[in-house]
Amino acid sequence: MTKLLYVEDNDDNVYMLKMRLELLGDFEVVTAENGERGCEMAVTERPDIILMDLEMPVMDGWEAARRLKSMPETSDIPIVGLSAHALAGERDKALAAGCDEFDTKPIEFERLVATIRRICEMKLARKAG
């Protein structure tokens, strides 16, 4: 079972994505409402992958990604940055902040699941190799 940490401040988004991922049967989803809480939960929950909204109150996803990648205990956890801003350069900005991948909102579910699976497979291959 893949443990996924979804960091998102919009309750509707959390409800829909968490439910859809868990219905697939191979994801356990834990959630955090802002980047600060997401950083704390990344340490305590040790997820396999993090889905990180980039625009949130308290601590945004940009800063949370930078912090997670700078901490030895979380630096190896892949982060998928999520943003409603699909402007040119947004992907590069997310990758520069520490995200391993970037996707736009509204979420295209099948594409996001394929991205999650690909990243998790690459992580397993690195551990085995």
How would you characterize the overall build of this protein?
This protein has helices at 11-23, 35-45, 61-70, 90-97, 109-128; strands spanning 2-7, 27-32, 49-53, 79-83, 101-104. The protein has 129 residues and is of the alpha/beta class. Helix 2 (35-45) packs parallel to helix 3. The longest helix has 20 residues, at 109-128. Strand 1 (2-7), helix 1 and strand 2 (27-32) form a beta-alpha-beta unit.
Give average pLDDT, whole number: 94
Structural category is alpha/beta
β content, as a range? 15-25%
Low confidence ranges: none
- The total of beta strands comes to 5
Sheet with the most strands?
A: 5 strands, parallel
Provide the helix percentage. 40-55%
- The number of helical elements comes to 5
Q: Strands of the biggest beta sheet: in what spatial order?
A: 2-1-3-4-5
State the end-to-end distance: 21 Å
Q: For the CA atoms, what is the radius of gyration?
A: 13 Å
Brief rundown of the structure:
The chain is of the alpha/beta class and 129 residues long. It has helices at residues 11-23, 35-45, 61-70, 90-97, 109-128, and strands at 2-7, 27-32, 49-53, 79-83, 101-104.
